[in-house]
Each structure stands twice: as C-alpha cells, then as structure tokens.
Amino acid sequence: MEKLQYLFAAYAAIWIILFAYIMRLQSRTKELGEELKRLGDDLGGTTPPSTDA
Amino acid sequence: MKNLSNASKVLSTLVFVSMLAALGFVFLYAPMEKEMGDTQRIFYFHVPAAISAFICFFLVFLGSVQYLRTRETRWDRLALCSAELGVMFGLIVLITGPLWAKPIWGVYWRWEPRLTSMLITFTIYVAYLMIRTHGTRSGQAPRLAAVLGIVAFANVPLVYYSVDLWAAEQQLHPPRNVGLAPEMRYTLWICYAAYALLLVQLLLRRLDLARIEEAVERLRQRRDELADY
Amino acid sequence: MNFWQRTLAILHKDLMAEWRTKERLSPMAFFSLLVLLVFNFSFELGGAALHEIGPGVLWSSFVFASLLGLSRSFADERENHSLDALLMAPGDRSAIYLGKMLGNLIFLLAVELICLPFFTLFFNLSPGWFLLPLLGVFFLGSACLSAAGTLFAAMSSNMRLRELLLPLLMLPMILPALISCVEATGLVLDHEWGESLYPHLKMLAVYAIVFIALSLMLFEYAVEE
Questions:
Q1: Which residue of chain B comes nearest to A30, CA vs CA?
Q2: Number of domains in chain C
Q3: Are the Cβ atoms of C160 and B135 closer than 8 angstroms?
Q4: CA distances from B226 to A45, B2, B213, B219, B220 (A)
Q5: C190-205 residue pLDDT tens
Q6: Which of B140, B160, B165, C140 ranks highest by number of CB atoms within 10 Å?
C-alpha cells in the first residue's frame, strides 16, 4: 500500500534525525575530549580548571 | 563520579526501553484510525515532538532570564543546548507533518495555522542559533543571546495568534480535544514519556559537550596568552 | 532629567540631525520606491492579482526600507563613540531606547507617507475615505516594526557582521506583525472596516505593546559594554 510508504518515511526521518544528532554529539565529545587532553599536556600537565556547576 | 556514570547508564537504558515500548504501542496496540488508516500512526511521534520542541524553547527562555539575573554560565549553557534541541525536535515536526499530510490531504504543504506557526517559530530559533555562532565576540555573546532568547519566546504566542487570524479557515489540524479512543490515549502518553526521557538524555549529553567546549576554549586562551610572552 | 525628558531629548537630537543631513530619510524613501518597482516587474501585476498582492508588496517595501533605516539608527553613535557617553549619563537607559524608537517610527511613517501616492498611482487606486483607517494601520504597523527593530538594531550594533545579522534577527521576529499589517491593509483597501479589521488592529497593538515593554526592560542588557 502506497500510504504505508509515507508512514515508513516519516518514522525513518525521525530515526535518521535523532541518530545523526546523537552521533554528532558523540563524535564532537570525543574529539574535544582529545583536544582537552592535548591542551592539558601542552600547558605542562596542568589539570583543566573545574567547570562551574 | 561512579554514581553519575551509573545514573547515566540507567537513563540510557530507560530511554532505549521506553522508545521500544512506544514503538510497540504505536504499531501493535493502538487501534487503526477509521478515517486515515495506518498513516495516522505518525501522530504518536509527531505530537510529542512538537511538545518537546516547545519545552525546549521554554528552557531557552528560562536559561536566558536566569542568565541575565545571575550571570552564571550554566544558565547560558542551558539556553544554548535547549535551543539546539528545540530546533532538532522542530525539524522532526516539520518533516513528519508533510509526510503525514501527503497521503491524507493530497499535498505536502498547506499554509495552515499550526504548520505555519511551527515553521515561523522554527525559523526564529534557527536565527537564534545562527546569531550565537556567527554573530558575537565571545565576551558579550551570552548576554545578547539571553536578550534574544527572551524576546523569541515572548514572540511565540504572538506568532500563533497572528497566523490563526490569517488562515483560520485553512485549519487542517483537528481541534485540541477531539475524542481519542482510550487505547490511543494510552499510546500517546507512553510516547510522551518516551520523548520526555529522550529529551532529558539528549539535554544532559549536550550540556556535557558544552562544558567540554568551554573548558577547551579556556585552555586555548590560556595557551595563546602564554605563547604571547 | 527625568525619563520623559531624556526620551524627548534623544528624539529631538535624532530628528534635528536628520533634518540637517537628510541622510537616512532620502535613501530610505527612494529604496522603498525601488522595491515597489522591483515587485512590479517581478510579478505580472494587473487587475485581480493587484488586489491580492498590493498590500503585501507595500509592506514588503516598508519592511526592507526599515531595515535600512534601523541599521543606521545606532551607527552614528557607534562611529562617534557617543553611545558610551549617553550610557554613562545618569538615569534610565531605556529612555535611549524609547527616544530612538520614536525617531525610527517617525522616519518610517515619513517614508510610508512618501510612498503612498506612488502606490496609489501604480496600483490605480482611487483615493477616498480609506485613507484615514489606512493611516491608522500604517501607524500601528510602523510602531511594531520600530519597537522590535530598534531593540535588534541596538543588539546588532554590538555584533560582528552587523549589517548582515540585523535582517536575520529582525525578519523572523516581525512576521506576526507583518501578517496582520498586510491583512489589515487589504481589508481597508477593500473598504471592509469594522468587525473583520478589529482583530488585526488588536494584534498589532498587542505586538507593539509587548515589544515596547520587553525592550524597555531588556535594552539595558542589550547595550551593556
């Protein structure tokens, strides 16, 4: 039934959007975590200042 | 730290389970709607997405107001992360809406009140995000964004009211309290719960990322200052 | 100096400066006319289509002209660094907002009044009693545009890429006002005033009041250094 294709497309769109966002979050978190470590080492092993609450 | 990590795992599991449950309810438990058939089932994910978007926009407002009052970074952080999530949920609404509309009303898009208002609201918050990323030098960014965050939310009821005036006759959405069969109502509530958990999960993750971004920025500045010696 | 005295002082200053140089009004008015021309050639205007599109074309040109004028609104202060002096003067800073907003409102109204004869000419409207309610719509609509626009102009004067960002800030936000302006103008030109017109006017009044109130509260934060 053609109508079901739209239903599928809609749910597929939701999934794609959600997963794309989650994966972007994860990869950026990982990337920045590595940069944070590198910066920390560059600055002579100083631990990063604790972020405020 | 251990407690936090455990809590986070529990939340992730909850989100996963609730989403799965929601899908089950939507496809296996909810009865077929008599007028629209199976395509109506998108309703169960379309409506909670809209509600989630508005919760996020309210959080932007809250974060903005609190930031101007306290000047604490955490409120500005909340505003930014909520805006991003709100735009994402808004995108879901604007994509599932037309995909629902096409088999039912024959066209992907009609300038009818709810869709149009959502589109305008979506545009306002996209502009908010764009201003935040491209517009400001770091020192003043949170303050200007906070003003914008407050004005944007105040504008939302005005958007809805004016679009309603403009196109009332084109209303294609059913009025709010249309009778839902009890099974449908339960399914909808399950979906609301699933989306609420998802929202919390995504917001917490995004806030974490924001904290890391701020820490990186701070260290970069410190390194640049030292390099200037 | 009390709040109203400050407001009027700033309004007076802006009007006097403009009177001497006419550096904002002329370009704004001319730009508005040019936009009317552009729309004329972009759409095949004539007959029934005119009726539908007329009000939209008119308000589009006013909105674009106001963007032009607003971006200059704080430019002088910025270039001469006199905004700092203004801010340092004791007293309520939101008077600056109100003074500027009234100035912008007056400029916008002037532009609209200049454009109106051309509009009636191009669109072959017969002048009549619709003029009075039309001016009412112009006033309310311009109040909305100025109320929101002045706040955004103040904000964008502090930002990078200010000319680029003011439209991005302003256009989505003024859509509710624009919708009602166009509807109201259409109704007035159709000689339908009364019940159908009133909700739109109410909408415009609410919008203007909300934005003025918000701006009076938030202006302080928008221009802080």
A1: B209
A2: 1
A3: yes
A4: 14, 35, 20, 10, 10
A5: 877 778 888 999 999 9
A6: C140
